[in-house]
Amino acid sequence: MTQISAGTHGRSPAPARTAPRLPGIRVMAHPRRRDQAEALLARLHGADRALVLDPEPEGPPGPLRTAAAAWAGPYGEARHRLVLQDDVVPAENFLDLVAEAVRSRPDDPIAFYSNWNHWNGSAVRLAALSGAGWAQAIPDEYAPSLAVVLPRALAADFADHAQRLLAHGTPPDDEALSAFLRERGRALFIAVPNLVEHRGGDSLVGNDVQGPRFSPCFADDAGGGRRGSSTLQALDFYPHFFKGHVYGIVPTGPGGGHTKAYWDETVQRTGVDPVLVREAARREPTPAALLRDLAGAGLHIHHATAAWTAAVLYGITLERLPAPTDAGSRVPDPAVRARAVETIPLGGLAQVVGLPLLHRVMEPLRRLTEEGLRAGAELAAATRG
Fold it and tell me: How many secondary structure helices (H) and strands (E) does the chain include?
Protein backbone atom coordinates (compact mmCIF):
# COMPACT_ATOMS: atom_id res chain seq x y z
CA MET A 1 0.00 0.00 0.00
CA THR A 2 1.19 3.49 -0.82
CA GLN A 3 0.09 5.76 1.98
CA ILE A 4 1.09 9.39 2.38
CA SER A 5 0.29 11.17 5.60
CA ALA A 6 -1.55 14.44 5.24
CA GLY A 7 0.88 15.98 7.72
CA THR A 8 0.10 19.57 8.61
CA HIS A 9 -1.51 20.61 5.33
CA GLY A 10 -4.93 22.25 5.37
CA ARG A 11 -6.76 23.34 8.45
CA SER A 12 -5.33 23.13 11.92
CA PRO A 13 -6.26 19.97 13.82
CA ALA A 14 -9.59 20.06 15.62
CA PRO A 15 -9.49 20.85 19.34
CA ALA A 16 -8.61 17.85 21.46
CA ARG A 17 -12.05 17.63 22.98
CA THR A 18 -13.66 17.05 19.55
CA ALA A 19 -11.00 14.78 18.03
CA PRO A 20 -12.41 11.49 19.39
CA ARG A 21 -15.68 12.16 17.57
CA LEU A 22 -14.00 12.00 14.17
CA PRO A 23 -13.41 8.76 12.31
CA GLY A 24 -10.08 7.96 10.77
CA ILE A 25 -10.12 9.51 7.28
CA ARG A 26 -8.69 8.02 4.10
CA VAL A 27 -8.90 9.59 0.65
CA MET A 28 -8.39 6.92 -2.02
CA ALA A 29 -7.06 7.88 -5.44
CA HIS A 30 -5.24 6.83 -8.56
CA PRO A 31 -1.85 8.56 -8.93
CA ARG A 32 -3.21 10.43 -11.97
CA ARG A 33 -5.51 12.25 -9.57
CA ARG A 34 -3.01 12.75 -6.78
CA ASP A 35 -3.16 16.55 -6.88
CA GLN A 36 -6.97 16.48 -6.74
CA ALA A 37 -6.92 14.00 -3.87
CA GLU A 38 -4.38 16.02 -1.89
CA ALA A 39 -6.51 19.13 -2.33
CA LEU A 40 -9.50 17.24 -0.93
CA LEU A 41 -7.48 15.93 2.01
CA ALA A 42 -6.26 19.43 2.78
CA ARG A 43 -9.88 20.50 3.37
CA LEU A 44 -10.27 17.96 6.15
CA HIS A 45 -8.90 18.13 9.68
CA GLY A 46 -8.05 15.56 12.29
CA ALA A 47 -4.96 13.69 13.38
CA ASP A 48 -5.82 10.42 11.63
CA ARG A 49 -6.06 11.25 7.94
CA ALA A 50 -4.09 10.00 4.96
CA LEU A 51 -4.00 9.64 1.21
CA VAL A 52 -4.11 6.09 -0.16
CA LEU A 53 -2.92 5.58 -3.74
CA ASP A 54 -3.64 2.62 -6.00
CA PRO A 55 -0.95 0.05 -5.12
CA GLU A 56 -0.89 -1.17 -8.74
CA PRO A 57 -1.39 1.97 -10.81
CA GLU A 58 -0.17 0.31 -14.01
CA GLY A 59 -2.70 -2.51 -13.69
CA PRO A 60 -6.20 -2.55 -15.18
CA PRO A 61 -8.58 0.01 -13.65
CA GLY A 62 -9.92 -1.40 -10.40
CA PRO A 63 -10.79 0.77 -7.40
CA LEU A 64 -11.22 -2.28 -5.17
CA ARG A 65 -7.41 -2.53 -4.85
CA THR A 66 -7.26 0.96 -3.44
CA ALA A 67 -10.40 0.49 -1.37
CA ALA A 68 -8.94 -2.61 0.28
CA ALA A 69 -5.92 -0.58 1.35
CA ALA A 70 -8.02 2.41 2.45
CA TRP A 71 -10.23 0.31 4.72
CA ALA A 72 -7.34 -1.60 6.30
CA GLY A 73 -5.75 -0.77 9.64
CA PRO A 74 -4.05 0.39 11.68
CA TYR A 75 -6.97 2.22 13.28
CA GLY A 76 -5.37 3.78 16.32
CA GLU A 77 -8.02 5.14 18.67
CA ALA A 78 -10.61 5.71 15.92
CA ARG A 79 -13.82 3.76 16.33
CA HIS A 80 -14.81 4.35 12.70
CA ARG A 81 -13.14 4.71 9.31
CA LEU A 82 -14.33 7.21 6.69
CA VAL A 83 -13.22 6.54 3.11
CA LEU A 84 -13.68 9.22 0.46
CA GLN A 85 -12.98 8.91 -3.24
CA ASP A 86 -10.89 11.64 -4.81
CA ASP A 87 -13.66 13.10 -7.00
CA VAL A 88 -16.06 14.33 -4.32
CA VAL A 89 -16.85 17.79 -3.00
CA PRO A 90 -17.68 17.82 0.73
CA ALA A 91 -20.47 19.98 2.08
CA GLU A 92 -19.83 22.98 4.25
CA ASN A 93 -19.02 21.85 7.81
CA PHE A 94 -18.67 18.34 6.41
CA LEU A 95 -16.79 16.73 9.28
CA ASP A 96 -19.07 18.21 11.92
CA LEU A 97 -22.02 16.71 10.03
CA VAL A 98 -20.22 13.37 9.70
CA ALA A 99 -19.52 13.33 13.44
CA GLU A 100 -23.19 14.04 14.13
CA ALA A 101 -24.24 11.24 11.77
CA VAL A 102 -21.87 8.75 13.41
CA ARG A 103 -23.12 9.70 16.87
CA SER A 104 -26.69 9.02 15.80
CA ARG A 105 -25.88 5.69 14.09
CA PRO A 106 -22.69 4.44 15.79
CA ASP A 107 -23.14 0.80 14.77
CA ASP A 108 -24.36 1.23 11.20
CA PRO A 109 -22.65 1.54 7.82
CA ILE A 110 -23.37 5.05 6.51
CA ALA A 111 -23.09 6.49 3.01
CA PHE A 112 -23.00 10.24 2.35
CA TYR A 113 -23.75 10.21 -1.38
CA SER A 114 -26.09 8.58 -3.89
CA ASN A 115 -26.39 8.89 -7.67
CA TRP A 116 -29.40 10.94 -8.74
CA ASN A 117 -30.59 8.49 -11.39
CA HIS A 118 -29.91 5.15 -9.69
CA TRP A 119 -32.14 3.14 -7.41
CA ASN A 120 -30.78 4.56 -4.18
CA GLY A 121 -31.14 8.05 -5.62
CA SER A 122 -34.89 7.39 -5.62
CA ALA A 123 -34.77 6.27 -1.99
CA VAL A 124 -32.85 9.40 -0.99
CA ARG A 125 -35.17 11.67 -2.92
CA LEU A 126 -38.24 10.11 -1.28
CA ALA A 127 -36.63 10.64 2.11
CA ALA A 128 -35.91 14.28 1.30
CA LEU A 129 -39.45 14.88 0.02
CA SER A 130 -40.97 13.30 3.11
CA GLY A 131 -38.72 14.94 5.71
CA ALA A 132 -36.70 11.87 6.69
CA GLY A 133 -33.03 12.34 7.49
CA TRP A 134 -32.01 8.82 6.51
CA ALA A 135 -32.82 6.45 3.66
CA GLN A 136 -32.25 2.74 4.04
CA ALA A 137 -30.38 1.70 0.91
CA ILE A 138 -31.90 -0.81 -1.49
CA PRO A 139 -29.65 -3.74 -0.62
CA ASP A 140 -29.15 -5.40 -3.99
CA GLU A 141 -28.05 -2.28 -5.83
CA TYR A 142 -24.39 -1.31 -5.67
CA ALA A 143 -23.42 0.55 -2.52
CA PRO A 144 -22.79 4.25 -3.27
CA SER A 145 -19.16 4.17 -2.16
CA LEU A 146 -17.93 7.70 -2.92
CA ALA A 147 -18.10 8.55 0.79
CA VAL A 148 -18.78 5.83 3.34
CA VAL A 149 -18.11 5.38 7.05
CA LEU A 150 -17.93 1.94 8.67
CA PRO A 151 -17.53 0.97 12.32
CA ARG A 152 -13.98 -0.18 12.98
CA ALA A 153 -14.66 -3.92 13.18
CA LEU A 154 -16.74 -3.86 10.00
CA ALA A 155 -14.05 -1.84 8.21
CA ALA A 156 -11.42 -4.43 9.10
CA ASP A 157 -13.72 -7.25 8.00
CA PHE A 158 -14.37 -5.57 4.66
CA ALA A 159 -10.68 -4.90 4.09
CA ASP A 160 -9.97 -8.62 4.55
CA HIS A 161 -12.96 -9.52 2.35
CA ALA A 162 -11.74 -7.20 -0.42
CA GLN A 163 -8.26 -8.73 -0.32
CA ARG A 164 -9.75 -12.20 -0.74
CA LEU A 165 -11.79 -11.00 -3.71
CA LEU A 166 -8.70 -9.50 -5.32
CA ALA A 167 -7.10 -12.93 -5.44
CA HIS A 168 -9.72 -13.90 -8.03
CA GLY A 169 -10.12 -10.65 -9.98
CA THR A 170 -11.03 -7.00 -9.46
CA PRO A 171 -14.80 -6.54 -9.05
CA PRO A 172 -15.98 -2.94 -8.60
CA ASP A 173 -15.61 -1.72 -5.04
CA ASP A 174 -19.22 -0.53 -4.84
CA GLU A 175 -20.59 -3.94 -5.86
CA ALA A 176 -18.16 -5.69 -3.52
CA LEU A 177 -19.29 -3.53 -0.58
CA SER A 178 -22.96 -4.12 -1.36
CA ALA A 179 -22.52 -7.90 -1.50
CA PHE A 180 -20.40 -7.83 1.67
CA LEU A 181 -23.13 -6.02 3.62
CA ARG A 182 -25.88 -8.29 2.27
CA GLU A 183 -23.97 -11.41 3.27
CA ARG A 184 -23.69 -10.09 6.82
CA GLY A 185 -27.27 -8.89 7.02
CA ARG A 186 -26.18 -5.29 7.52
CA ALA A 187 -28.30 -2.47 6.13
CA LEU A 188 -26.60 0.61 4.68
CA PHE A 189 -28.10 3.97 5.60
CA ILE A 190 -27.71 7.05 3.43
CA ALA A 191 -27.62 10.53 4.98
CA VAL A 192 -30.28 12.91 3.63
CA PRO A 193 -29.44 15.42 2.31
CA ASN A 194 -26.21 13.96 0.97
CA LEU A 195 -23.04 15.40 2.47
CA VAL A 196 -20.83 15.09 -0.61
CA GLU A 197 -21.34 15.87 -4.27
CA HIS A 198 -19.73 14.09 -7.18
CA ARG A 199 -17.27 16.42 -8.87
CA GLY A 200 -17.73 15.03 -12.37
CA GLY A 201 -14.99 14.86 -14.97
CA ASP A 202 -13.41 11.87 -16.67
CA SER A 203 -14.04 8.51 -15.06
CA LEU A 204 -11.09 6.15 -14.62
CA VAL A 205 -13.33 3.07 -14.82
CA GLY A 206 -15.64 3.92 -17.72
CA ASN A 207 -18.55 5.48 -15.85
CA ASP A 208 -18.75 8.47 -18.19
CA VAL A 209 -21.43 6.60 -20.16
CA GLN A 210 -23.72 7.24 -17.20
CA GLY A 211 -23.75 10.97 -17.94
CA PRO A 212 -23.78 13.53 -15.11
CA ARG A 213 -23.59 11.69 -11.79
CA PHE A 214 -24.80 14.16 -9.21
CA SER A 215 -26.61 13.81 -5.90
CA PRO A 216 -30.43 13.81 -5.78
CA CYS A 217 -30.17 16.25 -2.87
CA PHE A 218 -26.77 17.68 -1.92
CA ALA A 219 -26.75 19.65 1.32
CA ASP A 220 -25.10 22.75 -0.17
CA ASP A 221 -27.65 22.82 -3.02
CA ALA A 222 -30.40 22.78 -0.41
CA GLY A 223 -29.19 25.96 1.24
CA GLY A 224 -27.86 24.09 4.25
CA GLY A 225 -31.37 22.88 5.02
CA ARG A 226 -31.77 20.88 8.18
CA ARG A 227 -31.74 17.11 8.28
CA GLY A 228 -34.69 15.18 9.61
CA SER A 229 -34.27 12.57 12.32
CA SER A 230 -36.49 9.75 11.07
CA THR A 231 -35.52 6.94 8.70
CA LEU A 232 -37.21 5.98 5.45
CA GLN A 233 -37.22 2.20 5.69
CA ALA A 234 -37.51 -0.30 2.83
CA LEU A 235 -40.59 0.19 0.61
CA ASP A 236 -42.65 -2.09 -1.62
CA PHE A 237 -42.39 0.34 -4.56
CA TYR A 238 -39.80 2.91 -5.66
CA PRO A 239 -40.29 5.16 -8.69
CA HIS A 240 -37.23 5.23 -10.92
CA PHE A 241 -36.64 7.76 -13.72
CA PHE A 242 -33.66 6.77 -15.85
CA LYS A 243 -32.52 7.91 -19.31
CA GLY A 244 -35.93 9.34 -20.14
CA HIS A 245 -37.87 6.21 -19.16
CA VAL A 246 -39.98 5.64 -16.07
CA TYR A 247 -39.81 2.41 -14.10
CA GLY A 248 -40.88 0.94 -10.82
CA ILE A 249 -38.57 -0.99 -8.50
CA VAL A 250 -40.32 -3.68 -6.47
CA PRO A 251 -39.22 -6.49 -4.14
CA THR A 252 -39.04 -9.94 -5.69
CA GLY A 253 -39.50 -11.94 -2.52
CA PRO A 254 -38.45 -12.42 1.09
CA GLY A 255 -34.76 -12.72 0.20
CA GLY A 256 -34.37 -8.96 -0.23
CA GLY A 257 -34.02 -8.92 -4.00
CA HIS A 258 -35.59 -6.27 -6.22
CA THR A 259 -36.48 -6.01 -9.87
CA LYS A 260 -36.97 -3.05 -12.21
CA ALA A 261 -39.73 -2.97 -14.81
CA TYR A 262 -41.65 -0.30 -16.68
CA TRP A 263 -43.91 1.71 -14.42
CA ASP A 264 -47.21 0.49 -15.89
CA GLU A 265 -46.20 -3.10 -15.06
CA THR A 266 -45.32 -2.30 -11.46
CA VAL A 267 -47.49 0.61 -10.26
CA GLN A 268 -50.38 -1.73 -9.58
CA ARG A 269 -48.35 -2.81 -6.56
CA THR A 270 -49.51 0.51 -5.09
CA GLY A 271 -53.18 -0.18 -5.85
CA VAL A 272 -53.35 2.59 -8.45
CA ASP A 273 -54.60 1.74 -11.95
CA PRO A 274 -52.00 2.76 -14.58
CA VAL A 275 -54.82 4.04 -16.78
CA LEU A 276 -55.58 6.68 -14.17
CA VAL A 277 -51.94 7.78 -14.18
CA ARG A 278 -52.02 8.21 -17.97
CA GLU A 279 -55.24 10.20 -17.79
CA ALA A 280 -54.14 12.46 -14.94
CA ALA A 281 -52.52 15.09 -17.17
CA ARG A 282 -55.68 15.42 -19.26
CA ARG A 283 -58.06 15.94 -16.36
CA GLU A 284 -56.85 19.43 -15.48
CA PRO A 285 -55.68 22.34 -17.65
CA THR A 286 -52.46 23.25 -15.80
CA PRO A 287 -50.31 20.15 -16.52
CA ALA A 288 -51.53 20.00 -20.12
CA ALA A 289 -50.56 23.66 -20.60
CA LEU A 290 -47.15 23.10 -19.01
CA LEU A 291 -46.50 20.13 -21.29
CA ARG A 292 -47.29 22.34 -24.31
CA ASP A 293 -45.04 25.11 -22.97
CA LEU A 294 -42.16 22.71 -22.47
CA ALA A 295 -42.56 21.27 -25.94
CA GLY A 296 -42.54 24.80 -27.35
CA ALA A 297 -39.33 25.54 -25.42
CA GLY A 298 -37.55 22.62 -27.05
CA LEU A 299 -38.13 19.71 -24.66
CA HIS A 300 -39.51 16.77 -26.60
CA ILE A 301 -43.07 15.96 -25.56
CA HIS A 302 -42.03 12.38 -24.83
CA HIS A 303 -39.47 13.57 -22.30
CA ALA A 304 -41.82 16.11 -20.74
CA THR A 305 -44.52 13.47 -20.38
CA ALA A 306 -42.04 11.05 -18.81
CA ALA A 307 -41.08 13.72 -16.26
CA TRP A 308 -44.75 14.22 -15.45
CA THR A 309 -45.31 10.47 -15.05
CA ALA A 310 -42.28 10.13 -12.78
CA ALA A 311 -43.58 12.94 -10.57
CA VAL A 312 -47.00 11.28 -10.33
CA LEU A 313 -45.36 8.05 -9.20
CA TYR A 314 -43.36 9.94 -6.57
CA GLY A 315 -46.61 11.52 -5.37
CA ILE A 316 -48.28 8.11 -5.14
CA THR A 317 -45.36 6.69 -3.19
CA LEU A 318 -45.17 9.60 -0.77
CA GLU A 319 -48.88 9.40 -0.02
CA ARG A 320 -48.49 5.70 0.79
CA LEU A 321 -45.53 6.04 3.14
CA PRO A 322 -46.09 4.42 6.52
CA ALA A 323 -45.78 6.54 9.61
CA PRO A 324 -42.25 6.67 11.05
CA THR A 325 -41.52 3.85 13.47
CA ASP A 326 -38.77 5.81 15.20
CA ALA A 327 -39.05 8.94 17.31
CA GLY A 328 -38.36 11.35 14.46
CA SER A 329 -40.99 13.45 12.75
CA ARG A 330 -41.41 13.85 9.00
CA VAL A 331 -41.80 17.49 8.09
CA PRO A 332 -39.58 18.26 5.09
CA ASP A 333 -37.31 21.26 5.23
CA PRO A 334 -38.51 23.55 2.39
CA ALA A 335 -35.04 23.95 0.86
CA VAL A 336 -34.29 20.23 1.01
CA ARG A 337 -37.65 19.41 -0.51
CA ALA A 338 -37.21 22.02 -3.27
CA ARG A 339 -33.89 20.52 -4.36
CA ALA A 340 -35.33 17.00 -4.40
CA VAL A 341 -38.22 18.24 -6.57
CA GLU A 342 -35.78 19.74 -9.09
CA THR A 343 -33.73 16.60 -9.41
CA ILE A 344 -36.65 14.35 -10.36
CA PRO A 345 -36.52 15.63 -13.96
CA LEU A 346 -32.83 16.55 -13.87
CA GLY A 347 -31.71 13.07 -12.84
CA GLY A 348 -34.07 11.32 -15.21
CA LEU A 349 -33.38 13.38 -18.32
CA ALA A 350 -29.79 14.69 -18.08
CA GLN A 351 -28.31 11.76 -19.98
CA VAL A 352 -30.69 12.06 -22.94
CA VAL A 353 -31.42 15.80 -23.07
CA GLY A 354 -28.42 17.48 -21.49
CA LEU A 355 -28.32 19.84 -18.54
CA PRO A 356 -28.14 23.12 -20.53
CA LEU A 357 -31.63 22.63 -22.00
CA LEU A 358 -33.04 21.38 -18.70
CA HIS A 359 -31.72 24.41 -16.85
CA ARG A 360 -33.30 26.71 -19.45
CA VAL A 361 -36.74 25.16 -18.92
CA MET A 362 -36.36 24.54 -15.19
CA GLU A 363 -39.16 26.82 -14.06
CA PRO A 364 -42.00 25.17 -16.04
CA LEU A 365 -40.40 21.78 -15.40
CA ARG A 366 -40.44 22.46 -11.66
CA ARG A 367 -44.10 23.49 -11.82
CA LEU A 368 -44.94 20.36 -13.82
CA THR A 369 -43.19 18.20 -11.21
CA GLU A 370 -45.12 19.84 -8.38
CA GLU A 371 -48.37 19.26 -10.26
CA GLY A 372 -47.41 15.63 -10.76
CA LEU A 373 -46.63 15.16 -7.08
CA ARG A 374 -50.01 16.60 -6.16
CA ALA A 375 -51.87 14.49 -8.73
CA GLY A 376 -50.12 11.32 -7.57
CA ALA A 377 -50.98 11.99 -3.94
CA GLU A 378 -54.63 12.48 -4.90
CA LEU A 379 -54.70 9.20 -6.86
CA ALA A 380 -53.20 7.28 -3.95
CA ALA A 381 -55.57 8.88 -1.45
CA ALA A 382 -58.58 8.09 -3.63
CA THR A 383 -57.47 4.48 -3.99
CA ARG A 384 -56.94 4.12 -0.27
CA GLY A 385 -60.22 5.79 0.51
Answer: 13, 14
